[in-house]
Amino acid sequence: MSRKVKCIEGGICAPKGFKSAAIGCGIKNPEVKRLDLALIYSEFPTVGWAVYTQNEVCAAPVRLSSSYLKSTVPRAIIANSGNANACTGHQGMLDARTMASVTSRALGIRQREVQVCSTGIIGVPLPMGRIEPKIVPLVESLGEDGDPAAQAIMTSDTHQKSVSAQCKIGGKKVRIGAIAKGAGMINPHMATMLCFVTTDANVSQAEIKAATQEAVDHSFNCISVDGDMSTNDTVIVLANGQAGNNRITRSGKGSAEFREALTEVMLHLAKKLVSDGERVTKLVEVNVRGAASHLDAQRVARAVGNSQLVKCSWNGNDPNWGRVIHAVGYSGARVKEEMVEIHFDGVLAAQNGLAAKTDIDKLSKAVRKDEFTVTINLNIGRGEFTLYTSDLSPEYVLFNREEYALNRKS
Questions:
Q1: What is the pTM of this model?
Q2: What would the pLDDT profile of 140-186 be if each residue is shown by its tens digit?
Q3: Are 250 and 207 in contact (CB under 8 A)?
Q4: Quick one: CATH architecture of 283-392?
Q5: CATH number of 6-275: 3.60.70.12, 3.90.1150.10, 2.40.110.10, 3.30.830.10?
Q6: Which of 9, 112, 263, 313 could be a cystine partner for 320, CB 3.0 to 4.6 Å?
Q7: What DSSP line would sit under 275-319, residue for residue?
Q8: Is residue 192 annotated as part of the catalytic site, yes or no?
């Protein structure tokens, strides 16, 4: 976090007027006792926005929630783990609507004010007989502890992901809280991830929409673990204005500070998603500079960050710049081979498209780190882009094979 944005305690409930809760329903396996249904709620009216997966095959809760967003501002979020409610046909839509309607009645708000999210196995109907009876007790348990909600949305995550931050806007303290989940199927746009953000900032609807999209573009759309895009990806931001700052209008006074804080919170969680990728051992920052355009810089970063050969070399602590430059070449970006420079954590590996006269031990030391940077300078323009990605381990394959077998049995 920057000096202007400070981390604070409280997680998703750090902003004034927000409460959350979680409960166990046995969604994936009734014999396993774990939290798997979460609720986030603002006690005050809100403005809000959401960004959803761009996968053409999207889950019932995504289709329902996106339709609600077109006409109504969300005020509550109910989310389950263990089942994606994706590719479940007409029944899937009915189940998502039931989750929204039961939640809205218990909270005393309109059904369209409830965003519904699901994450987990695809193609299996939700066990509504276990979920529906737990919604009223879930509402009744709303409180200011955000940790249970962060735990309830986890799937293959190894730990919960939450953050809360504070900044000053117009002399008022503005708080932002957020939780996220995601470990596999991580790739823009966005990742197999859910992220819920709360803030007590006083902002206009136009500003919250623009700020949310900008923050997502600079965080969750800049990460990749395995190159797969999910059916359920959702980021939702709710703001209830309880900080008491003068209202922030689109690109108006306070907008820059608010957007910076929101982006930092999302980027913090985005990096956590990559670091917790399924059997990941390294967090790698791919910086592309000197591209002919911003789009070309993205093309190069994504080609390198998603290359299985490159990712395997990182897992093996191999500073193989040849695999990097070959991905640069097929990226679709404008490239002049004789102009390309590649650095591993600041150590020159290739210059003018040729091997640099650098001690291999220095390069190997750079990629042995748990976190390092690969910088690629194309030296033909001013386009830049940064992607956060990971290595690819043999354990990743074994883990997903085992998960498939377990899902078939459950």
A1: 0.83
A2: 999 999 999 999 999 877 788 999 999 999 999 999 999 999 755 44
A3: yes
A4: Roll (3.10)
A5: 3.60.70.12
A6: 313
A7: HTSTT---EEEEEEEEESSHHHHHHHHHHHHH-HHHHHHHHTT--
A8: yes
